[in-house]
Amino acid sequence: IFQTHESPCVPFDVGAATLVKADISYFHYRPDMDISLPYLALRDFEEAAAARRAEVEELGGGEPERDVLLFFKGARTMPMQQLRLSLRPLHDPQNGVYILQACRLFGHTDELCRADEEEYLLYDYEAAMVRSVFGLVVEGFGYDSYRLVEGLAAT
């Protein structure tokens, strides 16, 4: 059985089947039976990094500077909405801190959501991550976040 849900728990009895899952919780892992895979980056940063190097080369060469101090781009969903809303005061583009949140997919239609959504659409995730010194990794749907792996892949 190949389980793709981000929850570390499997919501059904797998019986004698082998379970293949990213990040199986230790409690549910059965040695010599299940296969726990590491999270893989869901995005490829090579194209964004190549575009950034070409941009710097056009301006005279040298090593590409990371001119974004902190970057986060994600969805504001019900399980972690309060946590992600608490990050809004950190958003300060003049000082290189970008906290971008989308909420269109989850039924939010208030004025705050519309403003956040407009700014969210202005920035490309891959391009911003290869320019960032830090990538903010915020709690996701499970006990971990694929954003951690993506942040490492963007370095």
Task: Write a concise synopsis of the structure shown.
By secondary structure, the chain is α/β, with parallel strands linked by helices.
Structure commentary:
With about 160 residues, this protein is of the alpha/beta class. The protein is built from five helices and six strands; from the N terminus they run E-E-E-H-E-H-E-H-H-E-H. It has helices spanning about 45-60, 80-85, 110-120, 125-130, 145-155, and strands at about 1-5, 20, 35, 70-75, 95-100, 130-135. The chain has a three-stranded parallel beta sheet, with no helix packed on it. A three-stranded parallel beta sheet has the order 5-4-6. Strand 4 (about 70-75), helix 2 and strand 5 form a beta-alpha-beta unit. The longest helix is centred in the middle third of the chain and has 13 residues, at about 45-60. The radius of gyration is 19 Å and the shape is flat. The two termini are about 35 Å apart.
Please state roughly what percent of the residues sit in beta strands, choosing from under 5%, 5-15%, 15-25%, 25-35%, 35-45% or over 45%. Answer: 15-25%
The gyration radius over C-alpha positions equals 19 Å
Content-based structural category: alpha/beta
Shape: flat
Number-wise, the strands total 6
Side by side, the strands of the main sheet go: 1-2-3
Mean pLDDT: 80
User: Biggest β-sheet, characterized?
Assistant: 3 strands, parallel
Helix content: 25-40%
| Low-confidence runs | none
Order of helices and strands: EEEHEHEHHEH
Number of separate helices: 5
Instruction: Give the end-to-end Cα distance, rounded to a whole number of Å.
Output: 34 Å
